[in-house]
Amino acid sequence: MSDLSSPYTYSSALGAGNCPAGTYHIDVVKGTVEFSDGLYELHGYKRGEVVPTIELIFAHKHPDDRPRAQEIVAEICRHGGHFSIYHRIIDARGRVHKVLTSGEGTVDPAGTVTAIAGMMVDLTATLQRETEVAAREAVERVTATRGVIDQARGLLAGRLGIGVDEAFKLLIGHSSRSNLKLAVVAADLMALADTKGPLDRLDAAIRTIVNGKPRRQRRDARS
User: What pairs with residue 86 in β-bridges?
Assistant: First the structure.
């Protein structure tokens, strides 16, 4: 079996962590392919269940990513060099993996590419975690935004002696006139309410919201 450890000796360490990985070696002259145990696993097999071939490699590529992968491999077979491609594979169980495949084409003294060796790293779990974190942060931002808007309309309702629905319409109207996001209008109002001391500036801001004066006058009132 060909040496799969060089120059990708770090693949086993990656495979043991959160990014499963494996190595491959393609003998371009003989047309044979060798997988490490990690690469068998990435494709949904155990060693001995299948004989790895170039056809098998491409068969597991996601249909939308297969043409680009074939083009890159063909280019490496012609000229050698390094490559890296982010794509998807579908394993033997039908599961989709988002992977990064890198490698290098070995060129002999005559300029012929004799082999392609490299590694494949499964980034599916990492990308999923990043997506989940982003989604959670988005929910937290929306919740925080909704909270400050609710506080602002409650404040308006209490200070003006009106219903919360009417107060909400006042906030929306001022947001539209001043070309400011509703959350910004609400946050500005609550910041004034939280300021210690006389409520003159808060009252001035509320009059601005009610009367529809330009934002410039509200800034002057706060200066």
Answer: 100
In Å, the largest CA–CA distance within the chain is 89
Radius of gyration of the chain (CA): 31
129-155 average pLDDT score: 80
**Residue among 205, 45, 34 nearest 119 (CA):** 34
Please report which residue ranges of the chain form alpha helices under DSSP H: 11-16, 37-42, 54-59, 66-79, 124-160, 164-178, 182-194, 200-211, 215-222
**What's the full length of the chain, in residues?**
223
- Identify the CA nearest to 21 among candidates 6, 34, 9: 9
Residue spans per domain, the chain: 11-122, 132-222
Question: Phi-psi bin for 44: left (phi > 0), alpha (psi -120 to 50), beta?
Answer: left
**C-beta of residue 72 within 8 angstroms of C-beta of residue 95:** no
Question: 76-118, pLDDT tens digit by residue?
Answer: 999 999 998 999 999 999 999 999 999 999 999 999 999 999 9
pTM to 2 decimal places: 0.56
Contacts by 200-203, CB closer than 8 A, 24 or more apart = 202/159, 203/159
Q: What homologous superfamily does CATH list for 11-122? A: PAS domain (3.30.450.20)
